[in-house]
Amino acid sequence: MAQLPNWALNWKTDDMVAAEQTLDDAADQAETAMAEADRTLYEVESNERPVSPEEAEMMKRYASSDKAPPEWRELARRVERGEFGWADYLRGDLDRDPGVVAAMDASVRQADEIEAGGAGTPPSPADPAAPGGRAAPPRPERPERPERSGRHRRDDDEEEDFSERDWFS
């Protein structure tokens, strides 16, 4: 193969080289900003407020009370057997567990009965033994998660690298 003359290898003008360098710098800054955003998002998602012992105790008192639906008492027995803890429930780790789903469904039915006037006024979640029917299970107020901004990665996203080494070599 014949070697190309020097003018064929160096066809870019100084303005083109400068523009190319500016583009490369902007791409590097964008990659750095995206990496920093990913790190920040990871930190925010992994630093959620832990469940307090008081919140777990409140759930235990409610689920073990006579006023709780049977599905909640079954969850309390499962916690006593060590299958999971109340903190797991409060963090939302068990949202797909059939027993948790059944307990939540029972709470919805109970709330519907109360709303229809069948069971009277529900007791306070802090006092499940209060008269007037069963209380809906307490869900402590949690701070809302911050809205994500920018581009969200999905499982089907391809890893793309727009660096100089891939595009300009």
UniProtKB/TrEMBL annotation:
> Which species?
Amycolatopsis samaneae
> Where in this protein does the record put region Disordered?
43-71, 104-169
Q: What is this protein called?
A: Uncharacterized protein
Highest taxon of source: Bacteria
Which residue windows does the record flag with biased composition (Basic and acidic residues)? 139-155
